[in-house]
Specification:
Blueprint lengths: L15 H13 L4 H11 L3 H11 L1 H9 L3 H6 L1 H5 L6 H12 L3 H10 L7 H21 L5 H14 L3 H17 L2 H16 L8 H4 L4 H7 L6 H7 L13 H24 L9 H21 L4 H19 L3 H9 L1 H14 L4 H11 L3 H11 L2 H31 L2 H35 L1
């Protein structure tokens, strides 16, 4: 059995600032592969150790480590792979590497440039195997080496081996794709994650023994589904060839949702293992994301990010619950009162003469486009528009307060597990109805004003 010291990476500290710097460089130059390894090193935490332990605990992984087997020279033997029959994995891999002018050594050089080559001999062998598998995974999954194909493959890999560094790259890539390509591109990335979640764990396969197997049969055996959404966007014959850009407002709103909903979740997942179970510090750290985004939008663009406000209010209530709750029932009561806290924010915004619905409508319709913002502001100051925004904000206040009462009754009359199952359905149902009713009311108000 391998000693425990061989099962951990030499450095599992999180370096988010170094990772964000590398992400910016990677977004500017997607071919700078070294930045990928900088991000993975800075944000891997205990992910590599967990993957290695899983590999070492499997019969296939234990055998490979005991034999000291290196996948790299096997994949570099193009003469042998080229002699395999057409349709086999090895032949398809060799054709892919030749067509794309790639080498396994190139990834090793990029990892070395990022200083990511340390560790025990067994761990270095595993990491070299994971690097070599990247291009093999391109062949197995059907994703190309274009930017979208790389992003989809990273989403697939994140589902297989949850490395926070990979998750960060996927998140930033999604933000960029929403601006450049729209929802079809984002849907292809989400499909990649779903396929990775459903497939067998590729890192645990005996690839040396599978290279002479038919590629289609291997895909079926490992439950790797065809990347239909990716092909629909990436195929030149697809119509349109370049996805239609979304309106600036929807792009801005989508960006805000990704940052302020996924961002705090990712920070919390990274921080929670490093603190006690009852600690509020992970929640405090996750609250920095919406707080930072709110400050950035206000200082740089004089915009109020409504999604950031909602996320921040909910996180602050969660922190207060964590600090004050003395038992499970009190914690559930606090959870049920979250909509009331949000409703109070809506009410205060109306009393201050700055209804949040107006800010949300501005963000979703104008985004960060100064010309569209100016047109929206010119319409919003009209008396009829002001009344509409005020009424809608007060309607949201009343609905959120009613939701809080309903949830408070439910959590005191239902078992805890039943309440935790029902409460999200109630919250999303109320939110959906509010959005639908607000749009319908806004359209009717605009039609009356035009008469």
């Amino acid at each position: 059995m391998l000693a425990q010291s061989t099962l951990e990476p030499v450095d599992s500290r999180l370096r988010p600032l170094a990772a964000l710097g590398a992400v910016r460089r990677l977004m500017k130059n997607p071919d700078d592969t070294a930045q990928v390894f900088v991000i993975l090193k800075a944000m891997r935490g205990g992910a590599m150790g967990r993957a290695f332990r899983r590999f070492a605990a499997s019969p296939t992984g234990a055998r490979i480590l005991a034999e000291g087997r290196d996948l790299v020279p096997v994949l570099e033997d193009h003469d042998r792979l080229g002699a395999l029959p057409e349709g086999t994995l090895g032949r398809a891999y060799r054709n892919f590497m030749v067509r794309e002018n790639l080498s396994v050594a190139g990834l090793a050089e990029a990892a070395e440039a990022a200083g990511d080559m340390a560790g025990s001999s067994a761990l270095r062998l595993f990491r070299a195997r994971m690097r070599a598998m990247h291009d093999l995974s391109h062949v197995m999954t059907g994703y190309g080496r274009d930017p979208l194909g790389e992003l989809c493959l990273l989403a697939f890999s994140f589902a297989q081996t949850p490395n926070p560094g990979i998750g960060l790259i996927v998140l930033m890539g999604l933000l960029k794709s929403l601006r450049a390509g729209g929802w079809k591109v984002a849907a292809a990335v989400v499909e990649g994650w779903r396929h990775g979640h459903a497939a067998a764990w590729l890192a645990g396969q005996d690839w040396e023994a599978l290279l002479d197997q038919p590629l289609d049969a291997l895909r079926a055996r490992l439950a790797i589904a065809p990347p239909r959404r990716y092909r629909a966007v990436a195929t030149p014959a697809a119509k349109p060839a370049v996805p239609r850009r979304l309106p600036a407002g929807l792009v801005s709103l989508g960006r805000s949702l990704l940052i302020n909903l996924l961002g705090p979740w990712l920070i919390y997942r990274l921080a929670a293992p490093h603190f006690a179970a009852a600690s509020a510090l992970p929640l405090l750290l996750s609250a920095l994301v919406p707080a930072g985004d709110l400050a950035w939008q206000f200082v740089k663009q004089r915009m109020v990010d409504v999604v950031a406000i909602i996320s921040l209010v909910q996180l602050c209530v969660s922190i207060a619950i964590t600090l004050l709750a003395g038992d499970a029932q009190l914690a559930l009561d606090g959870h049920a009162l979250m909509p009331a806290a949000l409703g109070l924010v809506f009410a205060l915004s109306a009393l201050a003469g700055m209804p949040l619905i107006q800010a949300l409508a501005r963000q979703s319709m104008a985004g960060d486009d100064p010309e569209k913002q100016a047109r929206f502001d010119a319409v919003a100051v009209r008396p009829g528009a002001r009344r509409t925004f005020l009424r809608l904000t007060l309607a949201w206040t009343a609905a959120l307060m009613a939701e809080a009462v309903l949830l408070l009754l439910a959590c005191n009359r239902m078992a805890a597990d039943d309440y935790l199952l029902v409460s999200p359905l109630v919250s999303y149902g109320v939110l959906g109805l509010l959005i639908w009713a607000s749009i319908a009311y806004g359209k009717r108000a605009a039609a009356r004003a035009a008469v």
